[in-house]
Every structure is written in C-alpha cells, then in structure tokens.
Design goal:
Blueprint: H1 2-24, H2 33-47, H3 64-68, H4 80-89, H5 93-104, H6 111-123, H7 127-138, H8 143-176, H9 182-195, H10 200-211, H11 218-226, H12 233-244, H13 253-265, H14 268-271
Helix pairs in contact: 2-4, 4-5, 4-6, 5-7, 5-8, 6-7, 8-9, 10-12, 11-13, 12-13
Length: 272
C-alpha cells in the first residue's frame, strides 16, 4: 500500500507530461496550443503597449535579430500564430518583416500555414512585409528566394537601426540647444529606441545618464519617469535602484524622492 501511494505521483506526473506534450504537438493544421495562447498574449501586449520579451528571459527585449537567427530556439514563439501576430501587429517594420521571414523558413509548413503566411502581406501595415511575402509566395517558397529575402531583411534591420540611432542623437542635440520641446524629446526617445530596437542595456544606460545628469532639467527627468513602464519590469527596478544609489547632491534630491515613491508602489515580487 505504501509503495503504491509513493509511486502514484510519479504516474500522475508522467500522465501530465504526456498530456502537455500531446496538447503542444502540432496538429494537422500546423498550430499548437501554446502557440495559440502566446498569440493571444501578444495581442494583449500590443493593445496595452507593453514590450515584447524573449521567452524565459524577462531582461531581454525581443528584437529582430532574435527572429532572424534560425539558430535561436524561440520555443512557442516558433509557432506560426505568434509570428503572424508580430508580423501584422507590430508598429515597427523591422520587427514585422523579421517575423514574416522567420515564418517563411518554417520546415513543417501545412497548407493552412502557407495560407496564413500569404495573408500577412494583406494584413500588415508595412509595405516591406507585403514585398517579402509576395516574393516568397510567388516563388512557391523556393529555398533560394527565401534565403535571399532573409539576407535582405538583415540588411534592412541594420540600416533601420542606424537611422533611428542617428535620429536619437540629433534629438539630443536639439534638446540641448533648446530647439526641441522636452516632452517631444522624451516621447520620441522611447518611440525611436523601440522602433530601432535599441538594446535594453543601452536604453538603461542612456536613461540612467539622463536621470542623474546635472545638466538635464528636473522636468525632463520626470517625463522619463512617466514612461518607465515601457521598459521590462526588471529593467525598471534596476534603473530605480541604481539611480537612487548614486551619490546624493542637491540636483538629484527631488528625482530621488520620486523614485522612492515609485519603488514603494511596485509589487513586492518585482522589487525583491
């Protein structure tokens, strides 16, 4: 009786594992349960303007290079439904085209998945996605054409990031010389860094530099604090903690008080 009782959880565990594997196994349509769930989660993130995160890593923002690197296992994001969601819903063309390219390289492509891929060109707001989809579908998913589209997408992403970075530098110059409104500067800082998929560690360093600078007006710093929610939760906490740990000086007193209030309002699981 004791042995039977002890062994029962192992059986249940095995049954649960088999059940989960059965649910997540691609069906004849080419979709998985986890893929559908993630697609719905992504839809909510786009509606609430939350950042997309790399699966199982809350410190990494999802960027086009992740999607374009076929050697990276993106887990449930590999499913056609989440990729289609990014390709059609993402406001930035580099992310959209990267998702479309990733979907085109799928080794197991059912007729329905091919149909969904063909619809991306009609539903995405970005002309570059339509061009990508048309090239692939008109070639009947020819591997050589897909490879060419993949290489062109990498070049497009690199060029886009360069342009966005240059725009950020120009905006900072205009802010310093007084020709750019502070609210516009902050709004465009987040828009350009998101559109250019600036690495999260670089965004963190830039924001910390601005928050702790003696030459940036407090009003501009408070505008940045209003937009911190556009960063992953773990990065927000790091920015708050590191800014509060900088040496005390009169120019930082007000901003540190506000940071302390923000930290108190965070859920305990984010602070710890």
């Amino acid at each position: 009786m004791t042995n039977e009782f002890i062994s029962k959880p192992a059986v249940d565990s095995q049954e649960n594992l088999e059940h989960t594997q059965a649910i997540n196994k691609p069906n004849n349509l080419g979709f998985t349960h986890d893929g559908l769930k993630l697609a719905l989660d992504l839809k909510e993130k786009y509606q609430s303007h939350q950042p997309l995160i790399v699966p199982d890593d809350d410190r990494k923002l999802l960027i086009p290079e992740h999607l374009l690197n076929i050697d990276i296992d993106l887990q449930s994001l590999e499913d056609p439904l989440p990729l289609a969601m990014v390709a059609t819903r993402d406001p930035d063309s580099p992310m959209s085209v990267a998702a479309a390219v990733r979907m085109s390289t799928m080794p197991e492509r059912t007729p329905l998945v091919s149909e969904v891929f063909g619809m991306l060109g009609e539903t995405s707001k970005h002309p570059v996605v339509k061009q990508c989809v048309n090239l692939v579908t008109e070639s009947a998913f020819n591997p050589k054409i897909i490879g060419k589209v993949h290489r062109n997408a990498k070049q497009f992403v690199a060029l886009s990031r360069k342009r966005y970075t240059e725009a950020l530098k120009e905006n900072l110059r205009q802010l310093i010389d007084g020709s750019l409104n502070p609210r516009t500067f902050v709004a465009e800082f987040f828009e350009l860094s998101e559109a250019g998929n600036l690495r999260v560690d670089i965004r963190k360093r830039l924001i910390l530099g601005l928050l702790t600078s003696d030459t940036i007006r407090p009003s501009i710093k408070f505008l940045f604090l209003e937009n911190l929610e556009r960063l992953p939760a773990s990065i927000r906490v790091e920015i708050i903690n590191e800014a509060m740990n900088t040496p005390d000086k009169p120019s930082l007193e007000a901003i540190k008080q506000e940071l302390a209030w923000i930290r108190l309002s965070l859920p305990p699981e984010q602070v710890n």
